[in-house]
């Protein structure tokens, strides 16, 4: 059965381009194209598409408000089509937090450049989006740790706490999951490293938004930097692997060249395996929602090295692909709903 797609974009030219990119695929059918939110609402009711592509930067409408209403009243897979300007990146990350499945970056340049450089990317996003089912974890992200609890945590840290590390991998639905998970980390949390499958164009905006929401400092990884408590480091999605190393007293992270691992670069497996090798039982691994199997093998390596391992459960995963693969391998010591993961991970870290 073909995947039925509705395109929403104020530009007639862009509607034609997206229709051409998707309509040329034998398993995808473009069933309509709307120029604004009002027209899109009627077409959604009438046509019941499998996937919607949505330009959230359309003038004359608030795309985020429209997306939020879709997710509240009639949840369905939405692929955001966005420019890579600063404003476009910020808006896209907010859309992913609201429940958009993926983000397609419109490159700057001519129409021909877009057609020539797509390489099937949009069609693959649509195929993956069509496999998504929607869950509602909570109306708000996890509450930050209270000042009193924060003081208790700081006082209880041992001198050797720097050797603890939390490693997190996520893909489809991961931005929304991180938006719920990370605000529960205290200001004094162990150094935390994250590989989220996301375009490099949107990674800086994701890190900045999370930094505003979290007690800990959230930033993009700078290759060669020493990892410190109270910091959460996100791989920049720059087509390099994020791996850890260092001597006996420090943990450093590097961005390195290399072939794709488990179909990705940066790869969660590559990161988890380096953590297993460097830290063994001093690490905690968390594998969140996502398509495919990246991270399952690496999480198993962490568990075999004595680390504590957690996978998100099916009920709260947007896509139960990567966590399922980890569960099938016996890589996850704990399989938990998203609201319980932070508490378990912090407890395993001695907090």
Order of SSEs: EHEHEHEHEHHHEHEHEEEEEHEHEHEH
Helix content: 25-40%
**Tally of structural domains:** 2
Provide the CATH superfamily of the largest domain: Methylesterase CheB, C-terminal domain
Tell me the number of helical segments per DSSP (H or I, 4 or more residues long). Answer: 13
Q: Classify the beta-strand content into a percent band.
A: 15-25%
How much is the radius of gyration in Å?
Answer: 20 Å
Shape: elongated
CATH fold-level name of the largest domain = Rossmann fold
How would you portray this structure in words?
It comes from Sphingobium fluviale. The modification 4-aspartylphosphate is found at residue 55. The chain is α/β, with parallel strands linked by helices and 351 residues long. The chain has 2 domains: 3-130, Rossmann fold (3-Layer(aba) Sandwich), CATH 3.40.50; 147-348, Methylesterase CheB, C-terminal domain (Rossmann fold). It is built from 13 helices and 15 strands. The chain has helices at residues 12-23, 37-47, 63-73, 86-98, 111-117, 121-130, 147-156, 174-181, 203-213, 268-279, 296-304, 322-329, 338-348; strands at 3-8, 28-34, 51-55, 78-83, 102-106, 165-170, 192-196, 217-220, 225-226, 231-234, 241-245, 252-256, 283-287, 308-312, 334-336. The strands form 3 sheets. It has a 7-stranded parallel sheet with strand order 8-10-7-6-13-14-15, sandwiched between helices. α8 (174-181) links the parallel β6 and β7. α4 (86-98) crosses α9 (203-213). The longest helix is centred in the N-terminal third of the chain and has 13 residues, at 86-98. The radius of gyration is 20 Å and the shape is elongated. The N and C termini lie far apart (50 Å). Residues 139-162 have low confidence and may be disordered.
